[in-house]
């Protein structure tokens, strides 16, 4: 399903999600509730708790703040809109910033939950204990998808790169588009001598962390940096958030950058197919990303559901896209604020439900595999 693009910040109706960012994208069909799921057609939540409505959402009242990952911005926007249409008296404000900023806000007690493209570091989990009075911050997987490598090279389509070549490009070792390494992977393409302009995130980003995990796992000899939310390689141009990176690639001939698939699709930015050793180079699609994410293993302990995606980075399975991420909602397992816990659980229950997850493909994301989704729902139900 094609995505509908809207430039700039979209004017939001009363009660809609408050999202900050340079670009807000809306997926076609992502907010197509039928009339019965609107506030006028649903039972209203009582002042003392929650009630189910025609949309199947168990509503709660109140207001919560959240912030973090721009990778999940498009999914969160659609989810919040649907929830608020179905649940009168609920306001969910998600500020799109970055994974790093979201975790800082959460650990300062500002947010009911935070979005992050990478699981909490040990020191971040330790810091969360000050906010989670009787518990700790945990990682709850929610949104999966491919990290697309988008490029701007007029006249060149179906560009194929492998992990080594991508690493050398972003590390400044390959500097022109007609480099012999790129030619070898694209023998039938007419590649210009245009200088390559790499674009990376200027803010701490889980998208950067996941890309560099891939490069370190699949092209270790050509990527000398440890994975991190902060970009470590020298050179290139920096831009804020995924929206900023994609916008700069879109307007700069010869540019290449990385961002979630929804940004590439909505702006008609061509994306690289990855030569993984499979029978054919693998395209960045939600279906192909799901094939990679399905190989993930839960490595968190207790109620924490942090995932190890390393098996995806080196897979040679047909149609398995290797550069994937999973965004997490960070919440307290215990010790959540009594004033915000009902709405936090209600909203997280909705987005983890079949109805919530089914919206993801239309927005360029991959739904959680069934086994992981089942564990997520159980974890959310136990939040206290």
Automatic annotation (TrEMBL):
Q: Which CDD domains match?
A: PBP2_PstS (cd13565)
One Pfam family this chain carries?
PBP_like_2
Q: Which PROSITE patterns match?
A: PROKAR_LIPOPROTEIN
What keywords were assigned to this record?
Phosphate transport, Signal, Transport
Which ranges carry the PBP domain? 54-354
Write down the InterPro entries for this protein, in alphabetical order. ABC_phos-bd_PstS, PBP_domain, Phosphate-bind_PstS
- Where on the tree of life does the source sit, at the highest rank? Bacteria
* Signal peptide as annotated in the record: 1-27
Name the family.
Belongs to the PstS family.
Descriptive protein name: Phosphate-binding protein
Organism in which the protein naturally occurs: Actinacidiphila acidipaludis
Mind giving the lineage of the organism this protein is from?
A: Bacteria, Bacillati, Actinomycetota, Actinomycetes, Kitasatosporales
């Amino acid at each position: 399903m094609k995505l509908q693009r809207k430039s700039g910040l979209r004017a939001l109706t009363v009660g809609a999600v408050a999202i900050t960012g340079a670009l807000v994208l809306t997926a076609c069909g992502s907010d197509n509730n039928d009339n019965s799921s609107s506030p006028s057609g649903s039972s209203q939540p009582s002042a003392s708790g929650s009630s189910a409505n025609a949309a199947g959402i168990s509503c709660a009242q109140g207001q919560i703040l959240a912030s973090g990952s721009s990778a999940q911005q498009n999914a969160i926007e659609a989810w919040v809109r649907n929830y608020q249409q179905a649940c009168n008296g609920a306001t969910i404000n998600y500020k799109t910033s970055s994974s790093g900023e979201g975790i800082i806000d959460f650990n300062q007690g500002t947010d009911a939950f935070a979005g992050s493209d990478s699981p909490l570091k040990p020191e971040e989990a330790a810091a969360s204990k000050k906010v989670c009075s009787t518990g700790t911050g945990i990682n709850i997987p929610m949104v999966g998808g491919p990290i697309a490598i988008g490029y701007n090279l007029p006249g060149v389509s179906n560009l194929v790169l492998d992990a080594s070549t991508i690493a050398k490009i972003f590390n400044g070792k390959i500097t022109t588009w007609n480099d012999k390494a790129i030619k070898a992977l694209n023998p039938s393409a007419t590649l210009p001598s245009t200088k390559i302009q790499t674009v990376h995130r200027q803010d701490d980003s889980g998208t950067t962390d996941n890309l560099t995990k891939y490069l370190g796992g699949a092209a270790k000899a050509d990527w000398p940096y440890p994975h991190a939310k902060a970009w470590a390689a020298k050179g290139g141009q920096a831009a804020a958030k995924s929206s900023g990176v994609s916008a700069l690639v879109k307007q700069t001939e010869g540019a290449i950058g990385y961002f979630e698939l929804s940004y590439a699709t909505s702006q008609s930015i061509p994306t690289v197919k990855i030569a993984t050793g499979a029978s054919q180079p693998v395209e960045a699609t939600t279906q192909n990303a799901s094939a990679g994410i399905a190989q993930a293993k839960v490595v968190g302990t207790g109620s924490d559901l942090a995932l190890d995606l390393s098996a995806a980075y080196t897979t040679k399975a047909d149609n398995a896209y290797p550069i994937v991420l999973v965004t997490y909602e960070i919440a307290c397992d215990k010790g959540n604020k009594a004033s915000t816990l009902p709405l936090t659980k209600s909203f997280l229950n909705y987005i983890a439900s079949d109805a919530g997850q089914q919206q993801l493909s239309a927005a360029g994301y991959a739904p959680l595999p069934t086994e992981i989704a089942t564990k997520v729902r159980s974890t959310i139900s136990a939040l206290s």
